[in-house]
Amino acid sequence: MNKILAAFAKDLRHIAPAGSRPFVCDGSPFECEAFIVGQEVATMGLDFWRFWSDERGFDRDAFLAEYRAERQQRGKRDSISQTRKVVHYVIESAYPVKCLTTNADDLRVLQFLLESIRPKVVLAHGKYAQRAISMLEYQGKVIQSKHFSRGVSFKNPPFEAQRLGREIAAAVEI
Known about the structure:
The chain is α/β, with parallel strands linked by helices and 174 residues long. The chain has helices spanning 3-15, 60-73, 82-94, 107-117, 127-135, 160-173; strands spanning 34-38, 52-53, 57-58, 99-103, 121-125, 141-145.
């Protein structure tokens, strides 16, 4: 067991509402130098803690597989939402910087994540997320964007999602 991850999870369990999804990342959240902050988790049927391990952290691949299955079961046309597609392209374009995605819906959780992990940069997409980051007085670099479900392209020029990912990578390297 990783004592740091176990202590983090114990504290997070105390503040994150039951049934919530406080974040998604690949592995240890402490390896994430960037946060992508939005609002309103679209898929609520997945238990965050099923994908958590005190040894490894969060299992993003297993989460995404169940996320896709859950969307299909609900009769959604696409296996992945517009927002998650954009998140994927931002993360891919930010490589090798590791990103954690979260939402501004619960300020206590967001504050806990910011204070515990201390990312170098936050990409806040949407006005709600931008206000939340401002209210919490995050001192790192903040990149602001339209909400990913509206107006951020990953298909057509200027490939806004890829540009945002490169901006994250550049901000971390500074």
